[in-house]
Design goal:
Elements lengths: L1 E5 L9 E7 L6 E2 L4 E7 L2 E6 L4 E6 L6 E3 L3 E6 L2
Length: 79
């Protein structure tokens, strides 16, 4: 099973976010609710957490890329 890691909408006015850095690499194990990426949104840096446990199998949005809210940032697969 694959779970999408989407850019959440952290505030009502938030329309996009920029990935600052990934705290995990492709192939790393992740635990549900673990911080895996830092995103800048409306001049505030926030952390994106893993929505499920497994392996961070694919990073789709690289650092310095700006994407709309709800965009899939990465994929997590079962370990």
């Amino acid at each position: 099973m694959t779970t999408e890691v989407n850019l959440p909408q952290f505030g009502m006015g938030m329309t996009e976010g920029t990935v600052v850095q990934w705290l995990k690499r492709e192939g790393d194990p992740v635990v549900e609710d673990e911080e895996i990426a830092e995103v800048e949104a409306e001049k505030v840096n926030v952390m994106v957490v893993a929505p499920a446990s497994g392996v961070l199998s694919k990073i789709l949005v690289q650092p310095d890329e700006t994407v709309p809210v709800f965009t899939t940032l990465a994929l997590i697969t079962e370990a």
